């Protein structure tokens, strides 16, 4: 998972995450990682349209969305 977050950071490509907040609310978000430090990442959240901090331990899953062009998955 950390590898995908690092790839998002380098490429500025959005990554989809399933995130659980400290009060156990689960959300799906598209984020662009701006910074990775020990326990957390700072990212632009496309859901909230603002900078947010996410605890790495609270990211339940992540992956790049399939992009389609001319009907073919890239």
Question: What's the SSE blueprint?
Answer:
Layout: H1 2-11, E1 15-20, E2 26-37, E3 40-45, E4 50-55, E5 59-63, E6 68-69, E7 72-73
Antiparallel strand pairs: 1-2, 1-5, 2-3, 3-4, 6-7
Explain the overall architecture.
The chain has 74 residues and is mostly beta strands. The protein has a single domain, classed as SH3 type barrels, CATH 2.30.30. It is built from 1 helix and 7 strands, in the order H-E-E-E-E-E-E-E. Strands 4-3-2-1-5 form a 5-stranded antiparallel β-sheet. It has a two-stranded antiparallel sheet with strand order 6-7. A hairpin with a 2-residue loop joins strand 2 and strand 3. The longest helix is centred in the N-terminal third of the chain and has 10 residues. The chain is globular and about 30 Å long. The relative contact order is 0.26. The mean pLDDT is 90.
Task: List the defining traits of the structure above.
53% strand, 74 residues, 5-stranded antiparallel beta sheet, mainly beta, SH3 type barrels, globular, two-stranded antiparallel ribbon, 1 helix
Second-tier CATH architecture: Roll
Overall residue-averaged pLDDT value:
90
- Percent in strands: over 45%
The third-level CATH topology is SH3 type barrels
Secondary-structure-based class equals mainly beta
Largest sheet: 5 strands, antiparallel
Q: Structurally, how many domains make up the residues?
A: 1
Apparent shape: globular
What's a quick, concise take on this entry?
It contains one helix and seven strands; from the N terminus they run αβββββββ. With 74 residues, the chain is mainly beta. It has a single domain (2-66), classed as SH3 type barrels, CATH 2.30.30.
